Amino acid sequence: MPTLAQQLGETAPVSFLVRKARRLGIAELDHAIEVAAIRGCKHYRSATPLAIPDPGLNRLSDDELTILLILGENAYHPTAIRCAAQLARSPRIDPHRLAALAVQHKAVRVLTHISRAGLAHDPEGRNFWITVLSNLPAAQAGSEPDLPHWSRFVSMPGIQKSGPAVTRWLTPIT
């Protein structure tokens, strides 16, 4: 399976965040998704939950976990990107720190994709996404066919008895 960086035609640096996660018992991308599910991204909980304990926010912040999910050295796993989009809207995320970590760990392209989708489709998080984007280097505008479509970051209930339901950005359930 190609890495996310290979899928996007980029090189993948080795991140100290991966080494930190491994020391904390998060050895695989599925483990990181499981920790995010424990932290409220229940939409991505495995049908057979893994026995991975949450190392705690003081040891691995939500900002770090979000970036860990979108690192280029990870296997190409669109579910991890979708999970990161949901976790990014945790109330414990600092948009300035999230952007800084993305720059530090070479995850700007994926976070920019998520943030542009958030800006366009998450009215409640508009200020958050503006702040993230304003703290990222300018990225070339255009579609990212290898990254999940914005519709994979939202809940779209469609038509209900009472009329059209509102599309909402998926956020962690705390």
Number of domains: 1
Provide the gyration radius in Å.
Answer: 16 Å
**Proportion of strand residues:** under 5%
Q: What is the subunit organization of this protein? A: single chain
Low-confidence stretches: none
Percent of residues in helices comes to: 40-55%
Helix-strand makeup class:
mainly alpha
Number of helices: 8
Topology pattern, helix = H, strand = E: HHHHHHHHEEEE
Strand order of the largest sheet: 1-4
Question: What would you say this structure looks like, in words?
Answer:
The protein is mostly helical. The protein has one domain (4-169). Helix content is 42%, strand content 5%. The longest helix has 14 residues, at 108-121. The termini are far apart.
Keywords, please?
two-stranded antiparallel sheet; 8 helices; mainly alpha; two-stranded antiparallel ribbon; single chain; 174 residues
What secondary-structure arrangement, pairings included, does this model have?
Layout: H1 4-7, H2 16-23, H3 29-38, H4 62-69, H5 78-87, H6 95-104, H7 108-121, H8 126-134, E1 154-155, E2 159-160, E3 163-164, E4 168-169
Antiparallel strand pairs: 1-4, 2-3
Helix pairs in contact: 3-4, 3-5, 4-5, 4-6, 6-8, 7-8
